[in-house]
Design a protein that fits this description.
Layout lengths: L2 H13 L2 E6 L12 H4 L11 H4 L2 H6 L1 H15 L6 H16 L3 E6 L5 H5 L8 E3 L2 E8 L26 E5 L8 H13 L2 E5 L11 H7 L3 E5 L11 E3 L3 H8 L3
Parallel strand pairs: 1-2, 1-6, 2-3, 6-7, 7-8
Antiparallel strand pairs: 4-5
Helix pairs in contact: 6-10, 8-9
The site of ligand BV8 has 31 residues, from helix 2 and helix 10.
Length: 253
């Protein structure tokens, strides 16, 4: 890891007043949750399917049972996954910032695994905005009523109790709009921050990937933490490393 860059980023982290952190699947990699790309590397039983097809409204409408079973499989393989040092370092930073009152640290995540929340980042304090939803929740496709029954082991698509419609995972599919309120909060965080940290994302999925440009446009410093740097021209500091190692070292006294 580039010690000089790390030292400069440590100072930025200390001095920043308003921070916006954007995380992607790479932050959960060290918890053993594979990213979309890895999940299709021929190892898994779903490798012959395209995740963008499965994680889409069309895919669900074409074959509800198949898409439902793909989510049931992901929930099954990920149910006992734990937050890793990256999630924990971010949650601790947020708690310290809140206690000192000197910094605001808002975490926008593309991940649906709920590990930031499990690590202590508080969704109710709007400290973690899960813009792509939450894989552990379900709602009705037709009337949007939340579906609160236990679905573990269920292979058929459950029926909504309110209207008899089809129950689906409460994640944002490709081609679907993001939750308006959450997206507004994410844009505001990026627009008002003086430091933007992009951690564990290939910055290919929109509109999330546009947040970095929004932060840059209003003068924020941009830091990227990723073992495989994206070629983004707006990044001021590139920390090439695993989030689970870099983040704890960022906050080392
Ligand atoms: C929208 C929930 C409009 C689901 C996800 C053509 C047709 C239709 C749409 C589009 C189109 N062209 C563009 C679009 C828009 C589309 C899009 O951006 N497509 C991309 C692929 C080009 N976006 C959408 O459709 C969005 N909606 O645009 O709506 C609209 C507006 C109004 C009205 C109606 C419609 C919705 C996007 C949300 C999709 N849902 N997740 C589910 O999980 O099942 S996105 C999903 O894939 C993940 O959440 C993640 O965000 C994304 C990418 O996943 P990964 O590849 O796994 O992760 P990532 O890219 O983050 O890469 C991992 C990185 O980590 C790598 O860089 C790696 O180097 C790094 N890494 C690895 N290990 C570590 C690490 N880093 C640090 N430490 C480590 N240890
Ligand atoms: Zn319903």
């Amino acid at each position: 890891m580039d010690e000089a860059a790390l030292k400069e980023v440590r100072n930025l982290v200390k001095q920043a007043k308003r921070v916006c952190v954007l995380t992607g699947a790479g932050v959960s990699a060290e918890s053993g949750i594979s990213t979309f790309r890895e999940a299709q590397d021929g190892k898994g039983l779903w490798s012959e399917y395209d995740p963008q097809q499965l994680a889409s409204l069309d895919g669900f409408l074409q074959d509800p049972e198949k898409v439902w079973q793909w989510y049931q499989w992901r929930r099954e393989v990920n149910q006992d996954k734990k937050p890793n040092p990256a999630h924990i370092a971010l949650a601790l930073w947020q708690q310290q910032a809140k206690a000192s009152g000197e910094q605001e640290v808002i975490l926008v995540t593309q991940n649906v695994d709920g590990l930031h929340q499990k690590a202590g980042s508080d969704p109710n304090a709007y400290e973690v905005i899960d813009i792509h939803g939450n894989i552990w929740k379900n709602h009705c496709l037709q009337c949007r009523e939340q579906y609160l029954e236990d679905v573990s082991g269920l292979l058929q698509v459950p029926e909504c109790k309110a209207c008899g419609g089809q129950v689906r995972p409460s994640v944002v599919w490709f081609g679907e709009a993001l939750n308006e309120k959450k997206w507004q909060a994410a844009e505001t965080a990026a627009y008002c921050c003086d430091l933007f940290l992009s951690i564990g994302t290939s910055s290919q999925v929109y509109p999330a990937a546009g947040l970095m440009m929004l932060a840059k446009s209003q003068g924020a410093k941009i830091v990227e933490i990723n073992p495989e740097p994206t070629q983004s021209s707006v990044v001021d500091y590139q920390i090439q490393g695993f989030a689970g190692l870099v983040l704890p070292s960022l906050f080392k006294a």
